[in-house]
Design brief:
This protein is α/β, with parallel strands linked by helices and 266 residues long. Helix content is 50%, strand content 12%. Helix 10 crosses helix 11. It is elongated, with a radius of gyration of 26 Å. 27% of the residues are buried.
């Protein structure tokens, strides 16, 4: 056992066999998710493994897992119950104290912003973040949390469109927004990206991109388009992306004499 001591905090660490670790007080933390435990086992990386937080042993040598039950089960699946884990021991001998510690651990963590997580994932070489980031950079833009011309911060929308429609359509969506409003940072808000992606996915084989950019830029700014879509979404009880797609289609078709060239829903 190792012990670190400061003026205010005393923390104990100890190696404990997995077979002696269990959630004794199930009501003192979140429900167990077997799928998540299996994913931890499949992707197990010792450098990412934080020591589980456990209580001191009870009268029969069992330790309650205060925090980290999925890590413990993942390690058990990967290495067996006789494997020993480096654990942090806290002083709790009843479920109320264990629950209080669990709440403190999880409430005290500062949430990671999506854009911060995205940029770290790029540094780690993860996909699709690297591919998305490269696409943005090739267009002369950059992923940044600061809203300004030349920057895009809507990483959730970028990732959603990439995962749902694919990289090629995401690239086409960003190019269309760039050609429509080349100097307006609001063109790359998350809701506008989602609405355009849905529209382009449905009509890309029949769409005159030049016409779309011209008619929309003459009629709306990005914020005006978004306001109109929100109103339509409330009136017709459809998603914001669906409402925006409808507005784009109707505006594209306006004053078009050739009925065959108009965009029609299947």
């Amino acid at each position: 056992m190792t012990k670190t001591t400061s003026k205010k905090v005393e923390t104990e660490f100890q190696y404990v066999a997995i077979k002696n670790l269990s959630v004794i007080w199930v009501q003192a933390q979140r429900p167990f998710n077997e799928k998540w435990a299996k994913q931890i086992a499949e992707e197990f990386d010792p450098d990412k493994f934080d020591p589980p937080v456990i209580t001191k042993p009870n009268g029969v040598g069992h330790y309650h897992v205060v925090e980290g039950q999925h890590r413990v089960q993942g390690a058990k699946i990967a290495f067996g119950e006789n494997e020993q884990l480096h654990c942090r021991i806290v002083d709790a001998d009843d479920p109320a104290r264990a629950a209080e510690i669990w709440l403190g651990i999880n409430s005290g963590r500062k949430a990671i912003k999506p854009i911060q997580k995205f940029l770290v994932a790029v540094t780690a070489g993860r996909q699709p973040e690297v591919e998305i980031n490269n696409t943005v950079n090739k267009m002369g833009y950059k992923i940044s949390q600061y809203k300004s011309e030349g920057s895009i911060s809507a990483v959730r929308a970028l990732t959603e469109v990439h995962n749902k429609f694919g990289h090629t359509l995401l690239q086409g969506t960003l190019l269309m927004l760039h050609h429509t409003w080349p100097h307006d940072a609001n063109a790359f808000s998350g809701d506008v990206i989602r609405g355009y992606a849905l529209f382009i996915n449905e009509f890309r084989h029949y769409l005159d991109s030049k016409r779309l950019a011209e008619v929309i830029s003459k009629t709306f700014s990005p914020n005006q388009l978004l306001s109109s879509a929100r109103l339509s979404s409330e009136q017709h009880r459809i998603s914001l992306a669906e409402a925006m797609s409808d507005i784009l289609r109707l505006r594209y078709n306006r004053n078009m004499r050739d009925e065959k060239s108009k965009l029609k829903r299947k």
